[in-house]
Design a protein that fits this description.
Elements (H helix, E strand, L loop, with lengths): L1 E6 L3 H14 L10 E8 L2 H17 L3 E10 L7 E5 L3 H9 L16 E5 L4 H11 L6 E5 L1 E7 L5 E8 L6
Antiparallel strand pairs: 1-2, 1-7, 3-4, 3-6, 4-5, 7-8
Length: about 170
Amino acid sequence: MKYGIAVFPSKKLQDIANSYRKRYDTKYSLVPPHLTVKEPFEADEQDIQTLVAELRTISKKQKPFKLEVLKYSSFYPATNTLYMKVAENDQLLSLHEALNTGSLYRERAHPFVPHITIGQEMNYDELSDVFGRLKLESVDHEETVDRFQLLYQLENGTWTVYETFLLGEGDS
């Protein structure tokens, strides 16, 4: 089964992202707006129980972090994808690294670029037009993230939460 690890932002930020995703994201109906902190990976039911225990340990050691979105960007020419750029910070990078070590290690297909996708699989003309307009706008959104989710993919391609992990819950 395919699993992934993501952060779901506040409803306010999801609403902003969805205002674009409804029209420009071919995967709009499969998963809510999110920040992927670990690329999708394969695991069987036996492995996932070990990984869940490891995720609980990681979550206790990691601190909540600031999710700051300032602008729109694109992965063009690698892919015709539009996204909300998430500012890197030490806590976010630490979480990403922790989720990619030990038994969670998997070869990465792409470098980690924190973002929330708002459009993908667009034709070039549409991408160019929409991104041209979005480059002139700023998002200027900030919130604190205190949890991440382990997701699994259903047969129809939809992603569903398997378990939620609170960051820093080991602190007293």
